UniProtKB/TrEMBL annotation:
Domain Glycosyltransferase subfamily 4-like N-terminal span(s) in chain numbering: 16-201
The protein's name: Glycosyltransferase involved in cell wall biosynthesis
Taxonomic placement: Bacteria, Pseudomonadati, Pseudomonadota, Betaproteobacteria, Neisseriales
Gene3D superfamilies to which the protein is assigned, alphabetical: Glycogen Phosphorylase B
InterPro entries: Glyco_trans_4-like_N
Coiled coil: none
GO molecular function, one term: glycosyltransferase activity
SUPFAM superfamilies, A to Z: UDP-Glycosyltransferase/glycogen phosphorylase
Keywords assigned: Transferase
Domain of life of the organism encoding this protein: Bacteria
Length: 409
């Protein structure tokens, strides 16, 4: 089978996030399929963006053919990002002749945060007789309306709404990463038999392989905390507004000294300086901030922790479900998780992998941390083992890639 995967922000181990297209495509290639990924050369998600001398460049990564499309850079969510989106869409249309003549796909996947890529994908699928798949990451334009405060009457929002509805109506299959979005999609024109849920996952082989060692600074800090008999609660990831780390810091200020809990935050992000200032203002001695580490070093960090934290804002958009990559890493580490959440689904609760508490509730977070610290190592070990078993059964990319193709039938 020939699979054309259009994903504006697609990454790779060489470039950084986002990884889902790479992991799925790699599994399909292993199964004997041919996969072409079309992506923009500039993405705010990647650590390393490719450099293009012309409008297009092809690259082979682990048997997957990437075609990079030259687009303008941007910062934030202003006009330059909109220009980047439309330039990418134009580049995809410019490539369409290749897929009519040189390499005719059997499946065309439109897969981006915004739904406008459904249009060129549908055009290519229609001309080649390929099956059209609309892969939904987030519900746009609902997210910029509910979270970003944009008016539903804004011309760009109206355009996004048209494109989303077009995708639901036109696609042969709708693959949703969100487990609770079916009714919303039905209300926007999707036929019920099209709906398939394929969440995010984890590369199990990557976890089973040798991980990168921790940097010396991280190793020394953690070794000292262990020597001091601290109960280490780890967080690895972005330091942004959505991660609700300010409530974790408030919770830290409420922890009694005798709890022995010490929180270690590893990563970077737009709000890290503000969080450091907050910790200083609160006089926190039980919180440490450490620099970000390579993805392959994350397992080594998680292994040194006694428990792990993930938190969310209290946002209505989460009623459709959440699907965080970070949580899969946490569960694969076989560590108990404190989950501060209010959403349509809760994988920690479903897996029996830790304790779930209310979102944006510092007192509840502090209580949850103390409850985890009070458990015996065997009790925490059982939670961690349950979380790992849950991921292996439901979120291994080898499993998800098979389910994805089965869903097309």
């Amino acid at each position: 089978m020939r699979i054309l995967y259009i994903n504006h922000y697609a990454g790779s181990p060489r470039h950084g996030m986002e990884f889902r297209p790479y992991y799925l495509a790699r599994e399909w290639v292993k199964a004997g399929h041919e996969v072409h990924i079309v992506a923009a050369d500039y993405s705010h998600l990647r650590q390393h963006n490719p450099t293009l001398a012309a409008n297009y460049a092809d690259e082979d990564i682990d048997g997957i053919r990437y075609t990079w499309c030259k687009t303008p850079s941007y910062e934030g969510n202003g006009l330059k990002r909109v220009l980047n989106i439309f330039r990418f869409l134009g580049r995809v249309m410019g490539l369409s002749g290749r897929y009519f003549k040189q390499w005719r796909p059997d499946v065309v996947i439109a897969s981006s945060t915004y739904p406008l890529d459904t249009v060129p994908a549908a055009f290519i699928a229609g001309k080649t007789g390929a099956r059209l798949v609309y892969e939904v990451h987030d519900l746009w334009p609902l997210t910029p309306v509910e979270v970003g405060g944009m008016s539903p009457k804004h011309p760009f929002i109206r355009l996004l709404q048209w494109a989303e509805d077009f995708g639901y109506r036109k696609a042969d299959t709708v693959v949703s990463m969100l487990p609770c979005a079916r009714d919303y999609m039905l209300a926007h024109g999707m036929a019920p038999e099209k709906y398939v849920v394929i969440p995010n996952g984890v590369d199990v082989a990557e976890w089973q392989g040798a991980s990168e060692p921790l940097p010396a600074e991280h190793h020394q800090q953690l070794a000292q905390l262990k020597a001091d008999k601290r109960f280490i609660v780890g967080y690895a990831g972005g330091h942004g507004l959505a991660n609700a780390l300010d409530f974790l810091l408030q919770a830290a200020s409420q922890l009694p000294q005798e709890s022995g809990v010490h929180i270690v935050l590893v990563g970077d992000g737009p709000d890290k300086a503000a969080l450091v200032s907050q910790a200083q203002a609160l006089g926190l001695q039980n919180v440490s901030f450490l620099p970000s580490i390579a993805k392959r070093a994350v397992p080594a960090f998680l292994a040194e922790c006694d428990a792990l934290y993930i938190g969310w804002r209290k946002l209505p958009i989460y009623r459709f479900g959440i699907n965080p990559n970070k949580l899969f890493d946490y569960l694969m580490a076989a560590k108990p998780v404190l989950h501060s959440v209010e959403a349509g689904n809760d994988m920690v609760l479903d897996a029996g992998a830790g304790i779930s508490v209310a979102a944006e509730d510092a007192a509840a977070i502090a209580d949850g941390l103390q409850r985890l610290a009070a458990l015996t190592p065997n009790q925490r070990g059982r939670m961690g083992a349950a979380g790992k078993a849950y991921v292996l059964a439901k979120h291994d990319y080898a499993v998800l890639a098979r389910r994805f193709l089965q869903g097309l039938r």
